[in-house]
Structure formats: structure tokens, C-alpha cells
Amino acid sequence: MAHYSSVSSAMIRSLILLACAWGAAVASHQPAASGGYCYTSMFSFGDSITDTGNQVSFFPTAPAASPPYGETFFGHPTGRYSDGRLVVDFLAEALRLPYLTAFLRGKTAEDFRRGANFAVSASTALGQEFFRARGLDLTIIPPFSLDVQLEWFKGVLHSLASTNHQQESKDIMARSLFLMGEIGINDYNHHFFQNRSFTAEIKPLVPMVIAKIANATKVLIDLGAKTMLVPGIPPMGCIPRFLNLFPSKNPNDYDKLGCLKWLNNFSQYHNHALNQMLHGIHRDTKVTLIYLDYYEAMLKIIRSPQHNGFTKKSALTACCGVGGPYNAGSLVCNGNATASNLCPDPSRYISWDGLHLTEAAYHVIARGVLDGTYSRPTIPSGCTY
Length: 385
Ligand SMILES: *[C@@H]1O[C@H](CO)[C@@H](O)[C@H](O)[C@H]1NC(C)=O
Ligand SMILES: *[C@@H]1O[C@H](CO)[C@@H](O)[C@H](O)[C@H]1NC(C)=O
Ligand SMILES: *[C@@H]1O[C@H](CO)[C@@H](O)[C@H](O)[C@H]1NC(C)=O
Ligand SMILES: *[C@@H]1O[C@H](CO)[C@@H](O)[C@H](O)[C@H]1NC(C)=O
Hints:
Blueprint lengths: L9 H7 L24 E5 L8 H5 L28 H8 L6 E2 L12 E3 L10 H6 L12 H15 L4 H11 E5 L4 H9 L4 H5 L3 H18 L3 E5 L8 H6 L15 H20 L7 E5 L1 H10 L55 H13 L3 E2 L9
Parallel strand pairs: 1-3, 1-4, 2-3, 4-5, 5-6
Antiparallel strand pairs: 6-7
């Protein structure tokens, strides 16, 4: 099933990765109508849906370090797996915060005063040792899982609250917005891409992945976090790379949008478990845990692409790829190799590179996250601390 083997070097494979991205975007030039957000900083965790430069700082030949990544916004590659901004960037704009500094690129605590981004492309909720024990090829699985990202965060918090540590760090936590994810899809992807059994090995991971996210959520709450966004995973059956990986001759395997039913069902299974977990987390009434429905957001865009300026025929096709039915025949869009299959106008496409979304799609999703369409409950505005 995986088409990776055609990619020769381990480095390149590592790039590949994993992260599927769907994010969301908020209105950059149009601050949320409700406006008036009062958060003084934002901290994010996750994978390539959210990574704004961590992976490329230790892996300078990763795909996101080359054009055409970044061609629409920034005008050059930044380490983001998109042609431009991600949901986290649109959120920062809406909150009137600077774009978050990628943790591995920050030099002093001051770089993180308004926030930090700990997300690493291809990273997982479960620790790397889990994948090692399963005998998976680790070249594409970075040792920066959720627990590691949390340890990084604790270090940053400690350096920001240097004097009256206890009180200062509680204050910082209370005034910050946390974006916990998307994280978890790579735990599945690494298995899928290495031909592991869905029933025997992948599906049973769900409770373990959710438990890791639960732990991370509790750790932040214990440190004093009051407002946290926790995204679900997108409909995997609508992701070009998966459509290419699992072709079926049976028309009944596809829904009327052309997405793989069994994979979308799997995404729902994960998201349902995530929701159950969030509802069950013990917390006081001052803590708001907000589920972000990336699943419904993506589906809605795919259902009526024209509504947001996308073309119907490109709804399930990557803008940048190396050909094949979904233009997602190999794992990444990367500069020279793909020039012939780079679409002229990414804003007409939903999928950027077969795994991650275009800035235009992230923007639509982010707008829905901010206006409450895809956030349950709505992100509190005004000063709640
Ligand atoms: C919870 O997260 C912390 C990181 O802050 C980690 O050290 C700990 O092992 C995690 N516990 C579980 C049960 O995953
Ligand atoms: C997965 O299976 C496909 C088809 O059998 C094969 O071409 C590919 O090399 C396998 N990939 C891995 C990582 O084992
Ligand atoms: C959908 O997922 C549920 C929960 O895992 C499972 O019981 C059911 O068999 C799945 N249905 C299909 C069509 O895959
Ligand atoms: C792309 O082509 C340019 C010019 O031919 C070359 O300098 C560069 O190294 C190539 N990049 C990749 C990723 O192959």
C-alpha cells in the first residue's frame, strides 16, 4: 500500500511525512466579528498541521524547506506544510498576537513572551519508543512526541516566570490560549504508510492515543491553563494521499463525495473518543475545553467547494504532487520533482500536497473555528481572567 519505497533516501522519506493536515484558518484581514480577545499569549502543540518551523530546524532538507511551500504567503518556504498560513497563524492574527515562534528557533525566553509553537511535523501522540517496539521504521518518526513537546513547554514557562514563579506562571497560564493538536493522526499514518494491519494494529491504537491527549490536557490544566482548543482529526477518507493508497474497485466503498467510507468512519471513531474524553475530564468551571471540529469543517468544504472559491473537480486532488489520479502518488510535493504537477492557483484547491491543506482551505476552517461554527463551545472573548 505505501508508495514510499520509490523514494530512496531515508532522509527524503523522513520528510515525507506524516502529518496530515487540516487546519483551519481564520480570517486574517477580518478579525473575528466578536473580536475582543484578551489572551496575551498562545501556545500550540501538534504535528505538521500546526508546525511553523520546528521540523525544518533539525531537518533542513525536509520538503517544507523548499519551494513551492510558502509560495502564496511569506513568499518563501518557512517550514509550514502549506502554500501559506496555517490555522494557528490565522488564530494568532485574530488574537492580535505575532505569529508564534517555533520553539526550536527561539533563542531566549523573550522570543516566547507572546507564545510558542511546539508542534513538530510527523510527530505523534505516543512516544517514539512505542513505534520502535512495534518494529516500525523510525526514520520518519521524530523523537518529539506530545510528552516531549510538553516538557519543552514546561521549560519555557519556567523561564518566562522567573521571579515569583508560582504566581507568575499561573497568571501566564490563565491568560493564554492553548491549541492542543491536531495530534494523533500520525500515530495511525505511520502504521498505514508501513503497511500495518488496520484491524489488528491501527484501530486498537485509538484509546491509547486519546489517553495521551487526555494526559497532556490534564498536565496543562494542572499548571493553570484555563482555555484550551482541542481539534479532532479530518476525514481521512477524503485525503488524496489515502485515496491513492487505498483504491477500490467497489463503488460502494465510496460515499457520494468520492471519499472512502471506512476511513472516514475511522476518523469519526477517533473524534468520538476524543469528545468523550473531553467531556470526562475533571476540571473546575473556570476551565474551558473547546473541541474543534476539523472533520465537519473539511467535509463541508468538500461538499460545496464552489462556495469558497474552490473548483469542484479539484476537491479531492492535490495542488502540488507527482501525478496519479489524485495528484498524490508519492508522499510529498517537493520543488523540482513536482513542477509539472503544481497547480497554477492554490486558492482554487483544498489539498495542497495531498496530505495538507492550502492556505485558502485553512482560512475557511479557521474562520469557522473563530465564529463558533466549528468550535464547541465558542472560544471565549473578552477578559475572562
Ligand atoms: C503525562 O505527560 C507528562 C508530560 O508532561 C509525562 O511525563 C507523563 O509520562 C505522561 N503520563 C502518561 C500516563 O502518559
Ligand atoms: C507496502 O506494500 C506495498 C505493496 O505491497 C509495497 O510496494 C511497499 O513497499 C510496502 N511498503 C512498506 C514500507 O513495507
Ligand atoms: C465504523 O466504525 C465502527 C466503530 O469502530 C465499527 O463498529 C463499524 O464496523 C465501522 N463501519 C464501517 C462500515 O467501517
Ligand atoms: C532544484 O533545482 C535547482 C536548480 O536546478 C537546484 O539548485 C536545487 O538544488 C534543486 N532542488 C531540489 C530539492 O532538488
